[in-house]
Structure to design on (148 residues):
């Protein structure tokens, strides 16, 4: 199950100063269990997996995993994945704009030279959490088990 991946230093101005992210460039055919196992093996806070889009408006699709579970959206994985996608030869449909599909929907990423910026997707939830939602969060293992 060899897959190419890149380590991206997001938000850093010098090597090893930003938030590390692993990006698996060709994740087509991987199961959720395999994505989660790769994420745990790499042992970074997040690992992303690039896939063909399911929405025709998107340039590509990303799945974001922590050590414990999948996330619908996260900021530094969004930017790091876009950077890795471009480096791997990705060509956006529109000049200066990349459209990334994720669990929260479509995220528009503006590209200005080497700089990337995004508009956050709409919230999946809002308002006060229910008792059931609070109980669900409390049942989940911590994202960084080694830091508890």
């Amino acid at each position: 199950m060899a897959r190419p991946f890149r380590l991206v230093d997001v938000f850093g101005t010098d090597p090893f100063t930003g938030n590390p992210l692993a990006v698996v460039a060709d994740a087509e055919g991987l199961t959720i269990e395999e994505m989660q196992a790769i994420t745990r093996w790499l042992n970074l806070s997040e690992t992303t997996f690039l896939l063909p889009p399911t929405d025709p408006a998107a340039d590509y699709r990303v799945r974001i995993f922590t050590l414990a579970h999948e996330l619908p959206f996260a900021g530094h994985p969004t930017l790091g994945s876009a950077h890795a996608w471009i480096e791997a030869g990705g060509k956006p449909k529109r000049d200066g704009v990349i459209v990334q599909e994720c669990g929260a929907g479509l995220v528009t990423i503006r590209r200005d030279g080497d700089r990337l910026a995004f508009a956050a997707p709409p919230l999946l939830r809002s308002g006060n959490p229910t008792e059931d939602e609070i109980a669900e969060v409390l049942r989940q293992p911590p994202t960084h088990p080694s830091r508890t």
Observations:
- The chain has one domain: 5-147.
- The chain has three helices and eight strands.
- The CA atoms of residues 68 and 141 lie 7 Å apart.
- The first strand starts at residue 5 and ends at 10.
